[in-house]
Amino acid sequence: MDSKITRRGFLKTTSLAAAVTGATAGSSAELRPPAWRGDTRVQQIATNCEMCFWRCGVMAEVADGKVVKLQGNPDHPLTKGQLCARGNAGTQLLYDPDRLKYPMIRAGERGSGRFKRVSWDQALDLFASRLTELKKKYGPESVAFFPHGVGAGFFGTLMRAFGTPNSAEPAFAQCRGPRDVGYQLTFGRPVNSPEPVDLEEAKAIVLIGSHIGENVFTSQVTNFITGLQRGAKLIVVDPRFSTAASKADYWLPIKPGTDIALLLAWMNVLIAESLYDKQYIEQYATGMKELEAHVQGFTPEWAEPITEISASRIRETAHVMADVMPAVAVHPGRHVTWYGDDTQRARAMAILTGLLGAYGRKGGMFLPTKLKQGRIPLPPFPDSERGRVDGGGTTYPLATEESQGLTQGLVQATLSAKPYPIKGWIIYGQNVLESIPQRQNTLQAIEQLEFLAVVDVLPVEQTQYADLVLPEATYLERYDPPAFVTTAKRPYVAIRQPAIEPMYESKPGWWIAKQMASRLGLAGYFPWRDPDDHLARLLAPLSVNMTELKSLGAVSFEGHPYIEDRTEQDGPLFPTQSGKIELSSSVLQDLHFDPLPRFTAPDSPPPGFMRLIYGRAPMHSFARTENNSWLNELMAENQVWIHTSSAAKYDVRNGYKVVLENQDGVRSAPLIARVTEEIRSDCVYMVHGFGSRSKALSKAYKKGASDAELITRVAVDPIMGATGMRVNFVRVLAADRS
Amino acid sequence: MPRYAMVIDQERCVGCQSCTVACKSEWDVPNGSARTKVRQTGTVGQFPQLSKAFYVSQCNQCDHPTCVPACPTGATYQDANGLVRIHRDLCIGCGACVAACPYGARYINSSLGKADKCDFCASRVEKGLQPACVATCPAHAKIFGDLEDRSSDVFRMVYRESARRMETTTIAIGPNVYYRGKPEHAELVLVSFAPVPPRTIAPAAIWSSVLNKFIYLAVGATFLGQAVAFFHQLSTGEKQFDE
Prior knowledge:
The complex is a heterodimer.
Chain A: H1 7-12, E1 43-48, E2 57-63, E3 66-72, H2 85-88, H3 91-94, E4 104-106, E5 115-117, H4 120-138, E6 143-147, H5 152-162, H6 170-187, E7 204-208, H7 218-229, E8 233-237, H8 243-246, E9 250-252, H9 259-272, H10 278-284, E10 285-286, H11 288-295, H12 300-307, H13 311-324, E11 328-330, H14 342-355, H15 407-416, E12 424-428, H16 432-435, H17 439-447, E13 451-456, E14 468-471, E15 480-485, E16 492-496, H18 509-519, H19 531-539, H20 546-552, E17 554-556, E18 581-582, H21 586-590, E19 610-615, H22 629-634, E20 639-643, H23 644-650, E21 657-662, E22 671-676, E23 683-687, H24 707-710, E24 715-716, E25 723-724, E26 729-734
Parallel strand pairs in A: 6-12, 7-8, 7-11, 8-9, 10-18, 12-13, 13-14, 19-23, 20-22
Antiparallel strand pairs in A: 1-2, 2-3, 4-5, 4-14, 15-16, 16-17, 19-26, 20-23, 21-22, 21-26, 24-25
Helix pairs in contact in A: 4-18, 5-18, 6-14, 9-12, 9-13, 9-14, 12-13, 15-17
Chain B: E1 4-9, H1 18-27, E2 37-40, E3 44-46, E4 49-51, E5 54-57, H2 67-70, E6 76-78, E7 84-86, H3 96-100, E8 107-109, E9 114-116, H4 122-126, H5 132-136, E10 142-146, H6 153-160, E11 164-165, E12 177-180, H7 183-193, H8 203-236, H9 239-242
Parallel strand pairs in B: 1-12
Antiparallel strand pairs in B: 1-10, 2-5, 3-4, 6-7, 8-9, 11-12
C-alpha cells in the first residue's frame, strides 16, 4: 500500500485531471466548492465518523482517490466542526496495513490464524450454504447474531428474515441498558444517545462515575466545558481523581459500589429540608408520599460510613443542587453495568432529577423531538415459536423485544444448548472477546460452534477463530443507514457516504447483506436498488433536498427541548403507564421488584485484594483503535493506577511492570504501574481495550493488559439482565513472578 | 500588520489530544515527532486534596526567538507579523535551532531531514481559517487571534485579563502563546514544564554535521557516477567511444 503519497506531496503534483474521479465513488454527491486550501483538486465529502459511536460530522478531503485529511464538519448541527483525536486519526484506520483485505476461509485449527483467500462468490456461497445447513439441522434460531454499530442494521434485517430472534449487542447488557430501562421506568423514555443532558445551560452538573474528558464525545465535551465556564458548579462522584474531578468544585471520592446510598441521602436532604421542586412534583409526578417515607431514614449521617463521604459534604452538595434547581444536570452516565443493581441506581438518579424539577427543563435534561422516518415495506418476518435463548423478556423481564438483547445470554445458551442448541454465530463489528465479560466462556462457546462468520475491518482476535472472515469496507468507504437523531435540541438527519471506493477487496455491509439475502431467497427483504434508493425512501416524509443533504452531511429541524415548547404532536410529556413521572415505579412493583431504589452493599475485596475498576482514555475507543498508528503513538499501552499506600504494601514503585491476579487466580498480561495519589487505596484502575491477543494486529498485539480477561465474575441485574463488571478484585504481583 | 497570538485556556483543556492529531494530520508530522502536544502535569497534594492540569506546548513565536540567531544558514527567520518560520530550502537539518529552543518546540522532521515546528498554521491563517488545532478542539481551549485587533478575544485575554506567558526570571524571550486559568494551574505547569536555558551547538559541530553529509553525498555521487559509467559501458560496449 502506498501510504507515502501525502497530501502535500500530492499538492505539488501538476496533474489536475485524475483527482476528481475517485471522489464521488459510489455516490452522486454534489460536492461543495473546495474551500480549505483553495485548491480545486481537493474534494470534500461530508460524512460521519465511526471512530466511536457519537457520529461527529466529518469532511473527508479527497485527492487522487485518497483521503488526505479529515476535518470536522462545521455545518453539522451537533458537533459543529469539532473532531477528537480518534476522529482526526480516521485515515490511519483506512490505511492500516493490517486491515482485512480479502474474504478468507479457515485453513487450520481454530485460533491458529491460518486462512485461505477465496473470492467473494466462493465466500458468500459458503456462507449461504452453511446457514441453510444449520437451518435444516437445528432450525433458523440456532444461528445467533452479534451486531454492533449503525452498519449492523442491514444484517439485522437479514437475520430476522432468516428466522432467528437471537441477536444481542453489548450496548445493552454491557453498557447503557440499565440506564435506559431505569429512565424509561421513571419518565417513560430511555435516555438514548447522544444523551440529552443540558450541560451547557446547567448551573450545577453532577457526574456519577462519568469521566467526561477521558471519555470524549466532542459536543458533550464542548457543552460540559461551556457550562463550567458559565459558572456551573461541578460535583464529581468518582473513586478516582479523573480529569473531570480535577475541574470539580466538589470531588466526592466515594467508596466504590455505594452510589445508591449517596443518592438516597441527597434525596433525604432535599425532602427533609423541603428543598425539592414541589410545584413540579405536584404537577407531574406520582409516588411522592411513598418516596418521602422510603428515604426518611437515609440521612447523610446514615450514608457517611457507607460511602465514606462526610455527612456535611453530602448535605452541602445537596444544597448546591437545590440552590440552582431546576438547572441541575445529573448526567445519567453511559457505561453503567457495574454492580448488578444498576437499574436501581439509574432509577435513583432519575428520581433525583425529578425532585430537582430538572427533566424537560433548561439546564437539566431536555426532551427529544420526533423525526418522521420513511418506512420501507417489507414482507412479514417469520415468527419463532421457540423464542429467544438469552432470557430477555422472560428471566429478565425488562430486557424487552425492543432492547438490544443479552450477549452473555447467547454465550450461555451456546454452552448449555438450553433452551435449544445454538450452532452458528455471525459477528458484525462486535468484538466478543473484549466486550462480553467472562472471556473463558466465550472462547469455550466458540469451540462448540459448527460455524462462525466474522464481518470486520480489522483482524481482531475473534477473526482468528472464524470459519469465514469477510472484510468490510471502513466507514470512509461505505454507505450506512442514515442517523435519525432525536435527542438533540434540534433533531437532525445525518448521512454516512463513501469518500472513496473500498480498498482491496473489502465490501460495504449493505452489499454483503443484500448479496446474502439473494442467495438465501430473502431478496424481498431488500427491496431497494442501491444506497441512494434506500436513503431516498427513508427520507421521503422529511422532504429534504437530497443534493443539499449529501453536500452538508446533515440537516436539522426545529426542536422542542423544554416542557414549555411542547406541542400536541410531541405526544405525552411523560409516556409512562400513569402519564406522570413515576417516583415509585408501578411496573417494578407489578414485577415484584423494589418500586423504590434500595441500597445493598456489594461484596468487599478479600484481604490483600483491591477492586478492579476500568474506564476510557480520550485517544482510544474500546478495543477498536489500539492498532491505529497515530493513536498508538499517543498511547500504546495502558497502565494500572495504584494508590501510593497500596503500592507500598505490594512493594511496587511507579513505572514497575506488574501482573494483576484476580480472585479466581486469573492473571493479566504485564503492565506498568502508575503509582499515584489520584485513586482510593481500595481499588485500582485501568483503561479498557488493551492487551490484544491477535498477532495480526501488529501494533496492538500484547501491548498492555486486558481488563476483560480479569472480569471472570459478573453480578447480573435481575431486572434487565445487565452484567455488572466491577465485582472483581485483584492483587498485584511483580511481573517477573508470573 | 497583524501580530498573532494564541491563548490556551487551562480550565477548558481536558487533555484529549485532538489538537495533537489534527496538527499531525494537517502537517504530515512523522511518528515520533509533534508540532504540538498535550502533557499532564504532575499531581500535587495528597488524597483527596489534589490538583493537576494540562500543558499544551508548541512553538511560541517568541518576540525574541533564540532559534533565529542560532540558525547558521538563515533558514529560520521571523516574519514581519512576528511568526517564526523556516525556509526549508535553506535548512541543513543541523539541529542548532532545536537545541536553542527553551520550550522544546522544534524537531528534525525525519522524512524531510529538516527542522520543523508550528507556525500557527500560517498557510491556513492566510486563507482566513483557524489553525488546525484551534478548529478541532472540542473544549474550545485554544483561542487564536490578532493582538493588534482590540476587539479580539486574545487581546481581551492578554491585556484585560490575566493570561500569562510561560516565562521564568531567567528565560523571558516574549513567547506569544499565553496561558489562562487558575494561578495554581499555571504554577503547576511552570513547575512541571519550565522552559530550559537554550543550548548552543558549537559552530564546528554544526559544520561537521553538515560536512559529513556533504562527504557522504560526494562519496555516494562518485560511486554512483562510476557505477553508471560502468554499467553504461557494459551495455553499450566500446562502440560508444567510436562516435
